[in-house]
Amino acid sequence: MKIELDEALMTKIGVDEQEARELLAIALYKYKGIHGSQAGKLIGKSEFDFHNLLAEKGENVNYGLDDLVDDIKDNDL
To answer: pTM for the full model?
Structure first.
């Protein structure tokens, strides 16, 4: 899927394409419960890098035992 964003609007609100992707990944992580590894893939980074991005933005990292088991099953580690 491809999402197109209006360049003029993006410039007006001060968000570039990468930041828009990061904000989308964070929103999906927080509100739809996707895994950090999936969110990282959305922005072209590792799960570890995505967790660092969350910390930079002041967001909590939610990673529990179920996440670890899922990551092992999906070979995301």
So the answer is: 0.78
